[in-house]
Every structure is written in C-alpha cells, then in structure tokens.
Amino acid sequence: MLQRIILPLGVVFATALSAQGQPPGQRFTAEEYISEWKEVATRKMKEHGIPASITLAQGLLESGNGNSELARKSNNHFGIKCTPDWTGGRTYHDDDKKDDCFRVYKDAAQSYEDHAKFLQRPRYAALFELKPTDYEGWAKGLKKAGYATDPNYPSKLIGLIERYELHKLDKGIDVTYKPRTGPANASKPSTTKPAANKPTRNRRSDDVVEYHMGRTVDSFEGRIKYVTTKEGDDFRKLATELEMTHGMLARWNDMDKNAKLAPGQRIYIQPKRNASKSSSTHVAEGGETLWEVSQRYGVKLSRLAKYNGLAEEARLEAGQRILLRKSKR
Question: How many domains does the chain contain in total?
C-alpha cells in the first residue's frame, strides 16, 4: 500500500511505459501512459470489479505517470509495499520510515495484476459495494481504508479522472488523445532545474497554482480549474504550456480548436459540469449567447441547451430566464 504520493494532482504530466520498462532518460505524457495501459485497466475492471478510471488515476499519480524511480527500476506503478506474505523481489526506499520495503515486479503488467489482487484484501471490501461508475466513492474509500496517508489523495485521483475523462472507460467508452510530436518526447528530463520552456508549479493556495512561465491556474467555485488568456494566446500555445492537447482544451470549452482567443478570456482546463453549483437560473442580457452563459457558470453547453430547449448557437433576449440545472418537474 502506498504511503507516499510521488506527484500531486496531474498538472505537470509525463509518461507511459512499455510492459518491460521505460527507455533510459525518456519521459512521456500522461496521455501516452493512459493509451498504454487503458486496455489493461479495463480488463482488470471486468475481472475484479475495480473501476478502470481508479486504476489508471492511481497509476498516473503514484508512479509520477511511470517516471518515478520505483516504476522505472522496479516496475512498481502503485507504490505497493512488501507484506509478510510477499515472496517476490524487493527494493528499499525511504518513505514513512527509512528503508521501507517495496515490491519489485518482472514487468509493469505484473504490477497492474498485483494491484488488482491487493485491493481484494478485507480492508477494501466496502469498496466493492459501490457502483463501478462511482469513482468519487472509490477515491474517498481508498483513503479511508488506508491506501495512502495524503489527506488530499481522493481529490487528486478525482482531478485526474475528470481531467482525462477516465470515467468514460468505466462505462465502456474509449478515450483517445492526439499523439504529441516534437522534441518534448525526445529530450532527456532535467536532473537539476526545469528547462526554460517547461512549466514548474508553485502552490500558492488550495485553489491557485503558479507556473514557472507566469501562467496561473485558478479554480472556479472550487471545482473547475481554468486559466485566463493573455495577448497572443491560442489553444495550441496553452496546450504546450499546460502539457495538454489543444483539441481537448477546445472541447472542454465548447470551442473550435482553431478559434481565436481574446485577452482576459476564461478557458477551462477541466471539463465543465452538468449543473451550476451556485445558481439555479440566469437572467440573460440582450445579445448574450448561450455559450457565454455556459462559460460564465462552468456548465456544459450541451446541458444548457437541453435544459432550456434551445440550440447551442442560441442568442438570448434581454430578460430571458435560463435554467442552469435540470428542472425538477
């Protein structure tokens, strides 16, 4: 069981391993890691009942997306420690105590299988009473059962799942990402300080993350992260700085990936929600669009259109009442 969190919530992403390990000095994106292991995670879900989203999120988080020393050298993607009944390989790292013993696997696929078996222990039995689509319940239940000591462990898992839409896998829907090309994948990771074009996080508060390049990530209503655009920004530039794909960023904002962005615009870097947290209705201003309301309240445009019987391209009249949540009627 992991008592240490190697990387916080996946804002700086990196990695995907082959089953036999990672090429020396090479780092990968979170998207590549997901693409590498999503089939295995889905298979484990069918075999053992563990949501694929949870398995992948734990793999991303606990192994630093496969870039941690434990993952690279010992094929341990879940930080599982030795137990008295463990008869396999062992490696020692300082963790909750000096020279903590961690399991070593012949390949990363074996780590995924052992993770599934590890969660069959009695202490995690309550998790299997949850629906396989209840990833939030699983995330909170893992922390409650003692899988990790980090008090923010559930929110970190949930953040990764929602950022990469891993919950779709729990429903049998595939997730794919546009492959990244260029020198970012070929360059060796720095062992001293971040490269000049690499964002570095500096936690300022629970809801704000400052990047090395001056890019600030804020949180809307404490639940959806976003950035504010600057002069010259477009989705490709934002995606490069945030190590995401520009197509995904555009989709999360109900925009075309080639759309021009104006300075001061709010761009969500996580999916918008199905309903507003703070308001149930909005009174439109003359000429306002349904999309503008969607961005203002962080509600998916398709949901607003459905709630109000409008087209997504609708332009609203002054005083028009717009439902921000599903009607209870």
Answer: 3
| Shared domain check, 242 and 149 | no
Q: Which of 73, 91, 95, 74 is nearest to 82 (CA)?
A: 91
The residue segments making up the domain with residue 220 are: 201-268
43 within domain boundaries: yes
246 and 257 Cβ atoms separated by less than 8 Å: yes
- Assessment of whether the complete model's pTM goes beyond 0.70: no
Residue 2 lies in a domain: no
The structure tokens listed for 129 are 């009473």
- CB distance 273 to 300 below 8 Å: yes
Are the CB atoms for 255 and 272 separated by under 8 Å? no
Per-residue pLDDT tens digits for 124-138: 888 888 888 899 999
Is there a single domain that holds both residue 216 and residue 285?
no
DSSP state of 216: E
Pick the closest to residue 75 from 39, 112, 97, 104 (CA basis). Answer: 104
